[in-house]
Amino acid sequence: MTKTTFSILFPGLLCFACCGLPVLMAQTTSQTSFGKNRVQYNRQIDEWMLYESSNFVTYWYGDARNIAQATLQTAEYDFPYVQQLLEHQLTEKVEMLVFSDLTDLKQSNIGEDEVFQLRAGETKVVGNKVFVYFDGDHNHLRAQMREGVAGVLINSMLFGTNLQEIVQNAVLLNLPGWYTNGLMAYCGEEWSTDLDNHLRDLVQSGKYKNFDKLAKDHPRLAGHAFWNYIGLHFGRSTVSNLLYLTRINRSTDAGFLYVLGSGYRRTTDAMLDYYRKRYRDEAKSTKTPDQAGQIVIKNKKKLPLYQVRVSPDGRRIAWVSNDIGKWRVWVMDLETGKRKRVLKGGARNALQATDYGYPQIAWNPDNQRLAVLYERRDIPRIALLDLAKGKKEISDLSPEYQRVFSMDYVTPVDIVLSAAVKGFSDLFIYHTVTRQTERITQDFWDDLDASVATIDGHKGILFASNRATDTLSIEKLDTVLPLNRFDVFFYDLDSRSAELVRITNTPMFDERHPVGVDSAHFTFLSDENGISNRQTGYLEPYIAYHQAVVYLHDGAEVKALDTAKPGEWPFERVLAFLAPLDTVLQNVDSAQIDSIRFSPVYKKRARTWNQTNADRNITEHHIAVRTGRLVEAIPRDGKTLFYTRTINPQAVASTRFTRYRELTFRNAGLAIPAQPAIDSDQGQAPDKQPDASDLARPDTVIQIEPGWLFQLPDYLAAPPPENAPEAKAPPEKEEEEEEEPKTNEDIGIVLMQPAPRRPLKPTKPFMELGKSNAVIRFNPSQIIPYRLKFRTDYISTSIDNNLLFEGLNSYAGTPDFETPPPGILLKANFKDLLENYVLEAGFRLPTTFNGAEYYLWFDDKNIGSTSGMPCTAKRWSTPSINPFPALRSTNRRSSCAPIPCSGSSRCAIRLMFSSACAAQPPFARINPSC
Question: What is the model's pTM?
C-alpha cells in the first residue's frame, strides 16, 4: 500500500479525473508492501521511560538509564553552543531516544526507511527525533548528540517548520549532500586525528583532483573538512551567515559569493589546495612502513579488516573481515602464507549500518585455541575454537552484558573483558569453566582496550580509561561526566590493590591499545604529534614521600607524614590522606607510644618515548610476548594493510607535530613545543622524559579541581571574539619569550595543566552547579513511564483506481472482485511516538458516484518479541447488472503474521475472511450477515 501521496485541491481532482480517465483505467495494479524486518529481541525495549528537561525530552528503556542521564546532561550543556553556532532557535523540544548499543538501535521501528538508509557513523535524525547509542566511549555519545541536535536545527533553519515552508523550500532549495551532512558532523565533533588521517589518505592518493569528486565519494568527510576550513580561515560566525544567505538566495553559490567574497568553485579549490599543501609538507617529516614486513592478503573488495591478533608463538595471525554485516574470522600461517576461514556469521545488509564492534577475538595462551566473541539475536556468545582438532564450543555469556568492547586471556580458562553493564563500561574477569563473572571496576568512567601483561614480575591488566583519578572506588554518575581524554593504566592482578599505576597523563592527547612487550616494557598508540604512533616505555620506582608509623602498646598503628624528609610528591598532595607527624604526636598520649618507624614510600612511574614516525595512523597492533613479534594495521589508499616485524623496545624515533596538533596547542593557549629537525631520528634519547611532578600522583581519590570537572573544547568555556584574530595579538616581548625553546621538563609541566584558550579567572570556577553554564542535576523523581501517544503522520488526497491491499484476488481461477473505477481517495495515518503502532483509515468515492469504499488498517509491530501482526478491515459496494441491477456490498477482514527470515527480509502468512450481500428488488437479503 502506497504511503506517500500528493496533496491536491478538490477541483483539480475532478478535472484530472475527467481528462485522465482512459489512463487510469489502464493502470489498475495490486501493490504489495514489503516491510523491513524489525525483530526486537531485547525484551526491555517495551519498557520505555522519559525525562523532560528545558530543551529535551529524553526516552530510554531498561538498563539504558545511565546512558540517558549522561546524554541528557551533556545535551543541556552543549545546546547553547550549538544554537549559538547556527544562530537559530527551536519552537519545540528535541526528542532524544537513547539505545544501549547499535544492535538495539537497528531494532527500532521509528523512521522506517530513513533510519536504515543512513551509513554507519552518522547520527540518525527523523524529524525532531534524535537517535543515539552507546559504544563504550562517552565522547562518541556526545558527538552523536550534538550532531543530532545540529541536524534538527539545520532542517528547521533551511526548510522551515510548517508544511508550506517545508514543501516550498524542499522544491526550490536543492542542497548537495556534503553541505548538510558535513555541517552536522562539524557541529557534532571537532576536527580530530582520525578525520585528519582519513582526509590525508584520500588527498595524497591522487584520485581526487577537485572537490566535487571527493564530495561525491565521501560527502560526510568532504563536508566536515570544508566547514572546518571555513571556521579556521573565516571564523565560526561565518557558518551561520553562510547558512542564512544560502536559504534566502536559494543557492549555495550565491551564499558563498555574498559571505566569502568568492564563488563555490574558487572556495572549494582553495580549500582543497590548503589541505593538499599541508599534507605534502607534513609528509617530508614522516616515514612510510617498511614494505618488507607487509603481509599479503587477498582483499579484492577492499573489505574492512580489523581485530588483527598474532598467536603466542608468533607464527600465525587472526583477523576479521566484514562485508556489510557478513563477517568471517580468518587464520593465516605467516611462514606458508596459507589462510583458512575458521568461523563466519551475520548477513549482508546494505540498508542497515554495519556493526564493526563484533566479533572480538583472542588467542589462548596454549597457542592452539582461538576465542571468538560475537552477537546473535542480541545475546553475546563466545565460541572456543580448537584449531588443531577442528572442534568448537559455543556458549552464551551472562545476559547482564549489554556489549563487549575488548577481551584477552588471563589464564587458559579465564578471560578479561571490557564490557558495558547498565550503561557503564567496566572491566570483568570471565571464568569460561564455571561461566561466572568477577568484577574489577565499578564506576562511570570508560574502561576500554583491556589486555593482559606482566610487568616487573607483576601480572596485571593494561587498559585505556578517561578516569580522573587512579584509585578504584564505586562511583555513581552525578555532575562529573566522563568526557576526558584517554590515558593508560595498569591494574595489578596479583595484589588486587585499588591503587592503579598511571602510565600516561595527557589531557590533550589520547593513548589507546596498550599491550605488553616483554617482562619490563609495554607499548601503546598515542596521537601526541597528530598521527597515531606507537610509544614504548617501562616503569621505574621512585620515593614519593616518607612515612612514619606510630606503634601503640595496644597494637594499634597510626600512619603519618614525615615532613623532615621530603619526597618527590608535594606535601599538599600527601596531606590529602596523611597528617603530619608532629600533629599526630600532639593528639596521641606519649605514654601509649611503643615505637616509631620511618620508611620511604615507593611508587612507580612510567618513562616513555616515541618508537615510530608513521605517515598514517596505526589503528591496531598486537605483540607475541614470547617471540617479540609484532603485527600492526595501517589503512592506506582505502585498504587495511597488515605489517609484521620484530619489535625492539629500545628503538627511538623523533616525531614532528602536524598542523592539526599545532592548532590544538594554539587553541588551548599553549606555546608549540620545540620540534626536532626532519632528519634527526638517529641517536636520539627518548623524546619524552617525564617529570616527577608529572607522573607522581597520589594513589588515592583526589579532589578534582574546578577546571577538571567537565573537559570540553576550550572555546566553549571562553569563546574568543569572532573574525578578529589580529586584534588580540600578544605584545612583541611575549612573542620573543614564546620563541625560546623549552626543555622537556617545561613541556611536561605545561601539558599537565588544562589550559583553555583564554585563562580562566581563579575566582570563577570552570563549571558552577546550579547556574546557566553548569551541568544540570538529574532528578530521578521526575522520571515517568512512557504512555502511548498517537500523532498524525500525514493526511493525503489522491485519485486512482489501484487496489488498496494485496491478497484481494482469488487464485481459484476466477477473481471474486471487479476492477474498481477511478475514485477520490482520502486517507489519514496515525503513529505513536515509537511507531510500534500504526493506524490508517481511508475512504474512496468513485467518480461515477454509484458506490463507496472505505477501510481501516492497524499494524502492531511488536506483538510478542519476534513479529508483528497487521490487520485490515475493508468494506466496499459496487453496482452489478447480472441478472438484474443490484448493489453488491462486500466485507473483508484479513490478518497477516510476518515471520522473520533474516535481519532484512521476512515472509508472511495471511488469513482472510470475507462476506457479501446484494440488495435486489424486492430488496431481499441474500446473506443475513450483511
Answer: 0.80
